[in-house]
Design a protein that fits this description.
mainly alpha, rod-shaped
């Protein structure tokens, strides 16, 4: 059973958002630290964009040439006893 990619993306967003809220609540006396933590988490979110894009794209079919070549390599290995 697989979890849909959008659910994973939403959970990641909620985790990061919760961490930002926690940071702001506990560091309200030091705005520079809040800024540093929020910027670091923004960078983390920016780095997760390619991961989410990979999770949401449909699976690519295997080209028939590659599949045929893989099968012929397997049968050749079986004949040679490798």
């Amino acid at each position: 059973m697989s979890i849909p990619a959008l659910v994973v993306a939403a959970l990641l967003f909620l985790i990061v958002f919760g961490a930002v809220c926690f940071t702001v609540a506990h560091l309200k006396a030091t705005p520079a630290r809040i800024t540093a933590v929020v910027l670091a988490m923004g960078t983390l979110i920016g780095a997760m964009v390619p991961v989410v894009a990979l999770l949401t794209e449909p699976p690519q079919p295997i080209p028939p040439v590659a599949a045929t070549r893989a099968i012929s390599n397997l049968s050749r290995s079986a004949e040679e006893g490798i």
